[in-house]
């Protein structure tokens, strides 16, 4: 599959394992020629967490940068929610809550469990892979240095402050915003539409008009409280300036508790 930073291929490693190989777009390689690619990838490859896709190797040559990752499967959350005709029903409310909690744990690990801390930089549904057990795993983390100002595929997934000349760019707070957008996609079944989703959903959450907000392909759950709390968390993640947003740890703690209440 072709993405914002490169093209991903399924391949067989010398030991016979299926792996995912990401070839960074040559134009991005050239524009980052002086950047310490290998030291950054070495740091990223230390990440080991159930909700993070591990990087198992990399290769570089003139004009070429290749990253080898564990093969999780071909299906990302964006496909499940928006492309697959059965995807919505496969992802019932409980599974959506589990996916949300898993993503929050993965981000919390990158932000706080890794030294140095890792900012994802492009947190969105297409960078969340779902394995056969519908466990969410983050990919493409820490690679935003390759195309920091390329708007394609980022508009609507990062906050307005990201684009500011001074003090902008990727940071933990912009990841929290991106996570809020993912929550809104899980709640509504709609794409981010370059930021339109946030502008449409926030007033509905504020006015508690949940019959209009929630994904019409799913039956509204009999106990709507967990879904309302999810909506509240989404609103806190996207409805505030950076300095007023919750940290991913606060968010993960709420979602972990919700997951325990609902899914066990």
Automatic annotation (TrEMBL):
**Metal-binding recorded as keyword:** no
UniProt superkingdom: Eukaryota
Q: Which residues form the Protein kinase domain?
A: 1-264
Cellular-component GO terms for this entry = plasma membrane
Which SUPFAM superfamilies does the record match to this protein? Protein kinase-like (PK-like)
Query: Do you know which PANTHER family this protein is assigned to?
Result: OS01G0253100 PROTEIN, PROTEIN KINASE SUPERFAMILY PROTEIN
**Keywords in UniProt for this one?**
ATP-binding, Nucleotide-binding
> Would you tell me the protein name for this molecule?
Protein kinase domain-containing protein
Q: Where is the signal peptide?
A: none
Q: Name one Pfam family in it.
A: PK_Tyr_Ser-Thr
Q: Which GO terms describe its molecular function?
A: ATP binding; protein kinase activity
């Amino acid at each position: 599959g072709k993405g914002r930073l490169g093209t991903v291929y399924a391949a067989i490693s010398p030991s016979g394992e299926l792996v995912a190989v990401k070839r960074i777009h040559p134009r991005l390689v050239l524009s980052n020629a002086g950047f310490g690619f290998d030291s950054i990838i070495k740091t990223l490859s230390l990440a080991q967490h159930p909700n993070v896709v591990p990087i198992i190797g990399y290769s570089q040559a003139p004009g070429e940068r290749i990253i080898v990752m564990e093969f999780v499967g071909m299906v990302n959350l964006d496909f499940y929610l928006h492309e697959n005709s059965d995807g919505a029903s496969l992802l019932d409310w409980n599974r959506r809550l589990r996916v949300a909690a898993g993503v929050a744990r993965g981000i919390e690990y990158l932000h706080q469990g890794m030294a140095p801390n890792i900012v994802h930089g492009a947190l969105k549904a297409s960078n969340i892979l779902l394995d056969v057990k519908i466990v969410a795993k983050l990919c493409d983390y820490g690679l935003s240095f390759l195309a920091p100002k390329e708007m394609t595929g980022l508009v609507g997934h990062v906050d307005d402050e990201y684009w500011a000349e001074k003090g902008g760019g990727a940071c933990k707070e912009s990841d929290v915003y991106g996570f809020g957008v993912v929550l809104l996609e899980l709640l509504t079944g709609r794409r981010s539409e370059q930021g339109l989703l946030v502008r449409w959903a926030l007033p509905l959450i504020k006015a508690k008009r949940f019959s209009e907000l929630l994904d019409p392909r799913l039956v509204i759950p009999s106990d709507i409280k967990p879904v309302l709390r999810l909506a509240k968390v989404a609103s806190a993640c996207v409805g505030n300036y950076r300095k007023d947003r919750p940290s991913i740890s606060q968010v993960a703690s709420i979602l972990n508790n919700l997951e325990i209440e609902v899914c066990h």
